Amino acid sequence: MRKYRGSSKLLLQPRTTNEVSQILKYCNSRLLAVVPQGGNTGLVGGSVPVFDEVIINMGSMNNLITFDKGSGVLVCEAGCILENLVSFVDDHGFIMPLDLGAKGSCQIGGNVSTNAGGLRLVRYGSLHGNILGLEAVLANGDVIDMLGTLRKDNTGYDLKHLFIGSEGSLGIVTKVSIHTPPKLSSVNLAFLACKDYFSCQKLLREAKRKLGEILSAFEFLDNQSMDLVLTYLEGVRNPFSSSMHNFYVLIETTGSEESYDREKLEAFLLSSMEGGLISDGVIAQDINQASSFWRIREGIAEALMKAGAVYKYDLSLPVEKMYDLVEKMRQRLGETAKVIGYGHLGDGNLHLNISAPRYDDMIFAQIEPYVYEWTSEHRGSISAEHGLGLMKANKIFYSKSPKTVQLMSSIKKLLDPNGILNPYKVLPHSLSSH
Amino acid sequence: MRKYRGSSKLLLQPRTTNEVSQILKYCNSRLLAVVPQGGNTGLVGGSVPVFDEVIINMGSMNNLITFDKGSGVLVCEAGCILENLVSFVDDHGFIMPLDLGAKGSCQIGGNVSTNAGGLRLVRYGSLHGNILGLEAVLANGDVIDMLGTLRKDNTGYDLKHLFIGSEGSLGIVTKVSIHTPPKLSSVNLAFLACKDYFSCQKLLREAKRKLGEILSAFEFLDNQSMDLVLTYLEGVRNPFSSSMHNFYVLIETTGSEESYDREKLEAFLLSSMEGGLISDGVIAQDINQASSFWRIREGIAEALMKAGAVYKYDLSLPVEKMYDLVEKMRQRLGETAKVIGYGHLGDGNLHLNISAPRYDDMIFAQIEPYVYEWTSEHRGSISAEHGLGLMKANKIFYSKSPKTVQLMSSIKKLLDPNGILNPYKVLPHSLSSH
């Protein structure tokens, strides 16, 4: 992926909602375009200026507002860094319903604005379910207070969802209210080897039934991903020292009773081994070993960056078809590039990465538009969790019908008639107001 | 509650999305108002005509379209009756993520359009999290195909949420795609008695931690609810034959391993008994006993209807303040009416019911607007799960800020400029286009 870098003459760091409102009111009246920016960890160029838009960086709005120790409802400003929130609620016996590799610098407002997914989605669902309320500032400076803290509220249209995942193009999220689940005491992690993709799929189905309520992550990586991590990251070791396998699966369980959970996981591994679904498997014996397992999965992106040029795709596909695309891509590219497949198998989310010595138009022509066409043909999504940003705005029709996109565009025009909010992003350029 | 009954010269039962589209296109061009109608089980007059609107009843669109036995994704038409879907997915080892008393006649399209809550929300979350996609027809007849089946899809604005809970006023939902979780084999139900509301609250906190991942329902009812059920429903018995208690709690657990779950629930009951949180408790020994426990909780609405006139309120409130309102109401009403409090404690959802021999303006004046003012003051919702419909459209400002309601109204005007879809409902009359 080519890195998107932008430049701007002006970066503002508002400290209050009122300041955000004043800035937007002014910019709207002068037709000045703005880019809302959180931790700037996005992968599709959504939070960088394209020309000379004013950057509104939310990092100074980083106060915790309230935390209810009974219900676990956290209310905070948009600029809070995810990892800080994770630590804070952890101290009170709760966990954040989302967790991602970028947690050390991404901000909750950015997570909400991009509908970030991550590792815990398989257990806790998407932010559309976990965000209880938010405050957003519209392009004209109007502050929309939807900062409720209730699990249930059916009074009128639930407009907060418009701001979840719209990448700052309909308004700037300034405060959020999140439901955090109680932290359960028992967490176990298993690292497993499978001989083929079909076994990974079958293992997922079995895990959903046999581990049921304690399953909290189901991730997979292929042989090429493992190879890459072992080559480029220091201190990473293959948990199965003797041999390489074709596929690896990480299964995490989270529950309230260590002994039961452990027995359940062990029984599951045993039956999977006997049934031939896994060829090897190891349960982390302590937190260090668990970290070393996670390091393999979470280190793939870093290893890819070190390996050279990388073309990144984040796709949702029906689980049974997901790996076909990786294999098709290998056929197309032959020896010119390495094709790496990994991701959130439990959610049907493939991170397809093509690693090459350098960016090359010939390689690129073999990848696009094929990857999008194939995904579209199989009714997948061309952006599972990364969003569209600048990079993929024009690709929206691969996953959305023309009438649906038209309706998005009407809503954009209603909320931001001058098109000042994050222009050139999300919606296709043919439909944007510029 | 006064029952809302309407009449119409015309009731249409389209069999296809195309027919819905043709009907709306015609009605829109002639400025004819329509009422979308599912099972007509709503409690706020949302699905009945006010004057002589054309009724579009969805009951004939009741086909299952696809069911993926791997992922549990069900795609079906809007007119499918919830109970039929429950049975269908059950046969394949899955469960619907929502369950409500009206399941025998309510339709999934109506459930989606009203964002129905019900008994399983505490475990599986709201329909905003469980509905993966939908198809809706706009007022002008445009069919918006958002019928995705993916867990994750961040390509543009997630507009399906506009149609979840907007009570048919922005479009008619014609098809839905739902994520159904695997059915777990072990279900246990306990009926418990608490001496006061504070104990119920504390029990909830403990249950969230100690039962954690297996907790699937946490319902409560007060002494007066029990009394009513015992008086008006035949064949219902108090599980604690010897004495009446002030509060009762139903705790359901759902998990994958009967022996562990049972031990966990028994240990929880024991420690709650020792800690003084519960004064008595019994675990259902078989499905019949479980049904008889649920009958008490689910029979309250029926018993209320038999007891005379009833004023019904469906409120979200912070759990710790929830029962204060019931007591305040008793103080206000004295001997003139019975005040009954029950509901989904796990979600902070109180069903407040006032039962009187007959409807009486004096009683009504003691209830409203006080009940709304009190709820608003405590930042609650005046409609947790029932919606606003006709009955509560003008009450929206008790729970939503003027700017938020203004934005709802703009969106209504954008999607339905002639105001033909379910007029006089949801939005306050001062803002509606008529």
Question: Which residues of chain A form runs of ≥5 with pLDDT under 50?
Answer: none
SS elements, strand count of chain A:
15
**Which CATH class of the largest domain in chain A applies here?**
Alpha Beta
For the record, the count of structural domains of chain A works out to 3
Percent of sequence in beta strands of chain A: 15-25%
Radius of gyration of chain A: 22 Å
What is the fold-level CATH name, i.e. the topology of the largest domain in chain A?
Uridine Diphospho-n-acetylenolpyruvylglucosamine Reductase, domain 3
Outline the biggest β-sheet of chain A: 7 strands, antiparallel
Could you estimate the helical fraction of the residues of chain A in percent? 25-40%
Broad structural category of chain A? alpha+beta
Written as H for each helix and E for each strand, in order along the chain, the element string of chain A is EHEEEEHHHHEEHEEHEHEHEHHEHEEHHH
**Could you give the order of strands across the largest sheet of chain A?**
12-9-11-10-14-15-13
Oligomeric description of these chains: homodimer
| Discrete helix count of chain A | 15
Q: Largest interface, by Cβ-Cβ below 8 angstroms: which chains and how many residues each?
A: A-B, 91 and 92 residues
- Quickly give the CATH architecture of the largest domain in chain A: 2-Layer Sandwich
